[in-house]
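[09:14] KT: can someone run the structure on this one? pasting the chain below
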Amino acid sequence: MQEIEIGRAKRSRRVYAFDDIAIVPNRRTRDPKDVSVNWTIDAFTFDIPFLAAPMDSVVSPATAIRMGQLGGVGVLDLEGVWTRYEHPEPLLEEIRTLPAAEATRRMQQIYAEPIKPELVTARIAEIRAAGVVVAASLSPQRTQQLYKTVVAAGVDLFVIRGTTVSAEHVSQNQEPLNLKKFIYELDVPVIVGGAAGYTPALHLMRTGAAGVLVGFGGGAASTTRASLGIHAPMATAVADVAGARRDYMDESGGRYVHVIADGGLGTSGDIAKAIAMGADAVMLGTTLARATDVPGGGYHWGAESHHPELPRGHRVEVGQVGPLEQVLFGPSETADGKSNLVGALKRSMATTGYSDLKEFQRVDVVVAPYVPH
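[09:31] RB: done, structure tokens below
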């Protein structure tokens, strides 16, 4: 790839966000009813390739259950209010109604409450009792502390999710999580991330992870770009990690690691582009936070928003579209790509002539830099 000279001491390459690319129709089209968006990871097959992000504004135990009933996966944040408080609903209501100027400070206070292992067990048990796949998330920092409780409670998919996760974290203050040893010793598939490039993703794949999350500070609630100067335009990031998946398959003798886009997926068009760039599935925050039956009530925030030392996100107002089922399956009452996400993905695939997700990863795309109107 051709490098660009930024200045005499620094060279770089051009990378692309989803807004910078467009999917190109092929010579063949299909009926959307003939398109499959099934997704399989490890022993689990899902009707839709959507994971609800482990964020308190998106996933409660009830939301995780509903997401599972609708054919996807709801990932519960085991460091959120549901494992810190037995009855968190009044606190969620308070977060929704906080003045913007007070939101960060008050959320820091709310999330300073210790995590209670007995609530971790109870929340997982609640989801399991509903008969859906149980997926839960911890940050790398909390994984060593709580993973035994999580696995004993009966989690099916274990997600290790941070702003960025590496296979070679270095610390002079504490023993870092040995991902390869940890994943080898677990009896459940592990999804880990985020990663934003070829090399870090390849290292994560070598740990034995079943899936790698792709993204860094790309969500609507994140201010990582402003706070740290770090940002990963998602079209290039997904394509780079898909390249790592391809090379790791050759290296490992055929082991397939799933690529899951996580961030910058504000509309159904972004979701289609993520699959087109090589993702097997997507993890959704903002798009599902707009549902009327998720905890955020029209607001959205993530763990970065209440970091005790360096917050890197805001509680943002995203509005409401309709119930979760309508957001996923329609009918859509607007033309802005915020509802009927599944229908839009199927239509994009049908319009370009592809019948399943792996085929759609081969669709042609062009660079078409976005110009706001």
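[09:33] KT: thanks! The CA atoms of residues 29 and 353 lie 4 Å apart.
[09:34] RB: yep, looked fine to me
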